[in-house]
């Protein structure tokens, strides 16, 4: 890679930030249906941006859900082909959730850009678009073949993407897949993630009386669906923090001494995490560290619960039902369907008298692991080392990108998780932001990586 | 009472129904703050109606909360004074909750009038207004002195009324208080309620991390406030349906054999109740019948629970907190404050690690009991017998009108619960209605009662 690329990146810096702000201004929330127009707008914006970057065959492809943006540049015969995946959809965000500024009006402050989607995933995704533009402008060509596949349903577990991959397997064929959609281990320390937890997402509905009942006239005489639901939910965990569902841990292998040692070497300050979260104590499965609990052990989290009158004031009525949503993170060989089977059995077996319970399956994604010794991962490590001045460490992520496992399974090639976010950038929370220093270092890493890959074939 | 009253009631029937519909059309919901204008409108409507009925000193009196409508007619020197209490506020209602017609657009069908507030309490309250009008028009005078005190905060546990009663004790002084705000035991069988359960209403908040956390990156490593809340709520009841809070049953005396026998004589078909509610089974404290559980035993009902993302779709985030509202029904000598103390202690003692819990007291009302042998109750029994052609039975209500106990305590006189609703009129639920036959029989009962009371002094 010649110095012209670095010069180009620095010369175009202000435009890059403005363009990222323009993309962040589009509230492309995929949860719910209120933001359909913005989803389309974000897809069109990206297609336009990819064309300007010099990519070819740019297309916004309709699916049964949100559209997928495809583009390629295939003028490096005999060289490897890289498929870059990213997502333009974002989590919901309301100013009232604790944002200091409007979540969809980006603000640059103290070297960060604040907006929903800044780090997850618009800021990280745009790095690769800018990188190919810089290489094409500064060097006239890309060192390898590059494809983009950018979806709009990652935050709702990518229902359309697996079918899309199978349908377009030839067009999407590549030697390696690159995804930048997570945090580095720490500021200044690049990292490559070698494992992701899987996800099983479901809704549980408890049904009771046919209509709301006055709690005075019926209270004590019928099963209250909220009581039944809380009883069921409380039964899902044992006192030691383990999941108390029979069969839940099938496919989970305990950490080896070597794996525990690797995790122990990673920076993780439990006291600092506790201070930042302002909780009286951290909590989790007995016998494991915070890092083990959140990256290498499976979990079952109740992420929402709703029952009874939701307005202000006390409406003393027993509701007809109560609902909850559960998100499990899976590891090893855990199978999302088998986990949901186990939970469904548990709920039916523990259902209190006087109500019925039903489980509705929403999302499933398997866990994923890749070896740090793979040549394409070693190439990424070298690119990071050059751009950041520091060798990356290898990490496990507690999060789920179910699509990583799908890419690996459907296209049969390794996935390199090349992350440029930071752990404190509040993805999914208020005041989400992205460290602009990593926008620049990310572009340089991405450019170097494409050059380094060209040596592999 | 002469025949002219009955003739007058029958001649004015259509107007009475139209007037009730006009009152029901005003959505005077007291829960929340959205319906302030309608609260004022309902109070003004009633004041106007009382003036037209011939009542004097009619006044809409401001309080710190919703206004109270006062009126009197005091031209029966030497005769008893009756204070009629009612409430013009109603429970929330949305067409989407399962209403067949708009809850605030009354419809007459099959002898019932359907609308929110039809039986609770506008339909029952208006009976007394129509009765004094009929007596004044047909006989030129009332047989006793009559006062009205109609509030607009009953559905939010009457926060302003106790202070109002103490402040205006002289003006409100009476020999007996009459309240029509509940159901008769069955269609065609009048009943007089001799006991009400008390109420303790509270909100419980569990607080966890300072911000919403991605369930992948933090799941398994921090206490989830929803888990903590469901654990706490599940701990409130034992397997036998009893409340598992130490001290909760203080002041509760078990039913005597005689009391159980009295309850056994009342009509109560548990199979029919189960069929109507469409539940797989009834459920409650072991060793008690449905009627005992819902009228003579105390209960703790969780009436709402809220935590996590409430929109459609799965947002896999651990929320900062979770909240719940609890309504306890109290009997015997249970004290609402002592009950809330006991629950607060229980919650603190059972609070899981990693979160904090807080209890906010919202409402309190003591249980109330009166003897069926009281002359003013016997007078009511005779009036019912004449109007309905059937002697009333004496019942216990599982509901709470905390203000009944307050009236009794502050004004020091008995409260007669003269009920004209029916048990299946869906108060607090969708398709609330009022049986119009009882509007007519109620007016005749109320007229006869005033005549009968005149004989007591």
From TrEMBL, chains A, B:
Domain Peptidase M20 dimerisation: 195-354
Gene Ontology BP terms: proteolysis
Molecular functions per Gene Ontology: metal ion binding; peptidase activity
A Pfam family annotated for this UniProt entry: Peptidase_M20
Keyword field contains Chloroplast: no
Alphabetical keyword list: Hydrolase, Metal-binding, Protease
The keyword Transmembrane helix is assigned to this record: no
Domain of life: Bacteria
Annotated protein name in UniProt: Peptidase M20
